[in-house]
Amino acid sequence: MESKTVVADIADELARRVVGGEYAPGDLMLSVRQVADEFDVNRATAQLVLGRLEAMGIVAAQRARGFVICDLRDGAGADVGGYVFRLSQAPDEVFEMFRDAVDMERAIVLESLITYATLDEQPDLTAIENDIDELESITQLNDPDYPAMFEKELGIIRHVLSALHQPFRKAVLNSIGMMILSLPEALAAYYPDAPDVRVLVWRAFVAARKTEAGPTQSQLALFEDLVNMYHQQVIERFAELVLGHEVDLPLYGAAATA
């Protein structure tokens, strides 16, 4: 029996062909025999490869036909979307997927934080403050670990979503996080310089939440503007890194109607 790594490697190669357009939606994927012959593996391993692709939603088994290529752009879930994002080599396509992911991440972050900030009862901020302390420690390194920073910021939002009893949104956020962590250019777009600024924003949010009356409307409006502006800049930076040029983007929030 071939190793799980061999199965995963062959599945990734076939998935790359789907993502790259070599196989179109509705086309037949290679048969068990063809996979075995092309990659020099036994048929049991080839069956595992096709089963892996089916489990990922890359192909669907059809009686009397074989494995048919699925339309990933129209029907893929978050996990498959992350898989496609990681394998895609077309810059325009990568950019569009990244922009969609950032749009969704921004919406989850902004809505959950504003809801959390306006809860009637004072929430327990201990876990969030601990994460912010750890985030600050990472930013003070000579060579900051950006994946660790991103994970720590995701952890803060996870605490908020748990407090709000929103497990579905937390699952979506986790899938988006995996997509972003899979591409170095994505992390570079999130942390271009001065990573300690992120710490200052989080501490300001906690300080406003800690006040007896909670944050004022002007504080919430400022925080919303900061979140929107930050994510706008993330998308613009990613465009420069992946496309090599600036792009015209619709503005978020108040800036869009100014």
UniProtKB/TrEMBL annotation:
<dbReference type="InterPro" id="IPR036388">
    <property type="entry name" value="WH-like_DNA-bd_sf"/>
</dbReference>
<dbReference type="InterPro" id="IPR036390">
    <property type="entry name" value="WH_DNA-bd_sf"/>
</dbReference>
<keyword id="KW-0238">DNA-binding</keyword>
<feature type="domain" description="HTH gntR-type">
    <location>
        <begin position="4"/>
        <end position="72"/>
    </location>
</feature>
<keyword id="KW-0804">Transcription</keyword>
<dbReference type="InterPro" id="IPR000524">
    <property type="entry name" value="Tscrpt_reg_HTH_GntR"/>
</dbReference>
<keyword id="KW-0805">Transcription regulation</keyword>
<protein>
    <submittedName>
        <fullName>GntR family transcriptional regulator</fullName>
    </submittedName>
</protein>
<dbReference type="Pfam" id="PF00392">
    <property type="entry name" value="GntR"/>
</dbReference>
